[in-house]
Design brief:
It is an enzyme of class 1 (oxidoreductase). This protein has 15 helices and two strands.
Length: 295
């Protein structure tokens, strides 16, 4: 009997257990806010996509990519990565101040996007109540050198621990700024265009999601955007309350939303592959050891 393909991460990974959590949606919005603070990176997005008109499509495509590489087969994940690399090779951006034209697949730009995503995913999960040991947090960062490879980065040059990730942000901090493109992203995320019938939903729900994502950014991001945020301890309380509420929604209901990556993974690997962060707190969890980068 042929053994089912667990994909690039598999049920024994920290990534598998965390990425099924509903707080990933807030983490994804935080990542967009953070990514927009790198002028060269956000310029590449704004000049090569109709972000203002198709932002929802872009968000869903990003979520689909993360779901595929996390829960899909190895073949599906590799194909998704190849498609992203192929698209990026064709795209250029121009600096309006200098006239310089550059590729959006420059390693430093890909690295910024990668680190902003991984940091957002981990920080929102930790601050919303997920209990990870320091070794598990390191392993999560280390595991995502796999996703870095898929988009075209050399994994050896990608942070493999939380300490290395923090050092990376310290190094890149002088390059960050809130330019016109960043404020375009901010404006969209605060009040995205929706059908008139959905305006009440946007005002009631989405504004809270976007506000919480913004508030969870690091203090230097708030300074660059020029908009204050509550103290970190108050944001942590809001993140925990939101996480508690969202996690009360039955997972089987949440996972039925298209494209159903987790349901398909469980059908492929069996019910024992069901992602749940509680597995990370088990005394027998093999995930509690050091990450591969530390071995």
């Amino acid at each position: 009997m042929v053994e089912a393909d667990p994909g690039l991460f598999g049920p024994e990974s920290v990534t598998w257990q965390l990425h099924g959590d509903p707080m990933m949606w807030i983490a994804g919005v935080r990542a967009l806010y953070l990514q927009a603070l790198h002028p060269r990176a956000v310029r590449g997005v704004m000049q090569n996509s109709d972000f203002r008109k198709d932002a929802w499509g872009r968000l869903m495509r990003t979520a689909g990519f993360v779901g595929t590489i996390t829960y899909g087969t190895t073949e599906a994940a590799e194909k998704a990565g190849a498609r992203v690399r192929r698209i990026h090779r064709l795209l250029k951006a121009t600096d309006p101040a200098t006239g310089e034209t550059y590729g959006v697949d420059e390693p430093e730009l890909l690295l910024w996007v990668h680190c902003a995503e991984v940091d957002s995913y981990l920080q929102v999960q930790l601050r919303s109540g997920q209990r990870l040991s320091a070794a598990q947090a390191d392993r999560y960062i280390d595991e995502h050198r796999t996703s870095a490879r898929l988009v075209g980065l050399d994994p050896d040059g990608v942070p493999a621990t939380t300490a290395q990730l923090a050092a990376y942000f310290d190094r890149v901090r002088p390059e960050l700024a809130a330019g016109a493109e960043a404020f375009d992203v901010d404006s969209f995320l605060r009040r995205p265009p929706v059908h008139a019938l959905l305006v009440p939903v946007r005002e009631l729900l989405w504004r809270r999601v976007a506000a919480l994502a913004y508030q969870s950014l690091p203090p230097y991001a708030h300074e660059l955007y020029g908009r204050a945020a509550p103290p970190p301890h108050a944001v942590d309380r809001r993140l925990r309350a939101t996480g508690t509420a969202l996690r009360c929604i039955p997972s089987r209901l949440r996972w039925q939303l298209p494209p159903g990556h987790i349901v398909k993974a469980m059908e492929r690997l069996g019910p024992g592959s069901r992602p749940t962060p509680s597995k990370l707190r088990s005394p027998a969890a093999i995930l509690d050891g050091p990450g591969r980068a530390q071995q």
